[in-house]
Amino acid sequence: MTQEAKSAASSRKHHSPSAKSDGRAAAVVQHYQAAVQLLQQGKFEKALAALEKLLPDAPDEIKERCRMYIATCQKQLEKPSLVFDTPEEQYDFAVSQLNTGFYETAREQFNLILANYPGADYAFYGLAVLDSITGRAQDCLNNLARAIELNAKNRLQARVDNDFQSMVDDPRFTELLYPEIP
User: Fold this and answer.
1) Distance (Å, rounded) from C-alpha 32 to C-alpha 179?
2) C-beta separation of 173 from 141 below 8 A
3) What pTM did the predictor assign?
4) Which tens digit of pLDDT belongs to each residue from 139-157?
């Protein structure tokens, strides 16, 4: 082996472990960022599991933050679940979530109302609004049609509701709101 080849082999030996550790460190940081994102999204169970899995291999500068976020997740998970005395209270909460941009929570609440009260026209109407805002045209039409079927007053409400702005150019929407116009 030439001196040059020995030097290259020696160089690879020294760089190889650090390259592996750099790759591991990058993976740990990536997993840490994903776990923090879950926490920020309110997915506390998933965040907790990810942080606990990450903790043993985390470098010291991340370990303390992991512990802090683990404690945060545990506190959030200990909070009592939301309890509503009436479906109307649950609807009000769903609308507040919708208005503040927490669309996933709003959809869950509307669907929970419908699971317990299948004739709750206002929950179908809420889903239609949510679908309009989130660009789900067909779901909007289906839910609004069901809301109108259950309570004809929803047709009049939808005609003046600015939350359906994204639907006004859709002929199916117009047909649903103005069936009397040929």
Assistant:
1) 54
2) yes
3) 0.58
4) 999 999 999 999 999 999 9
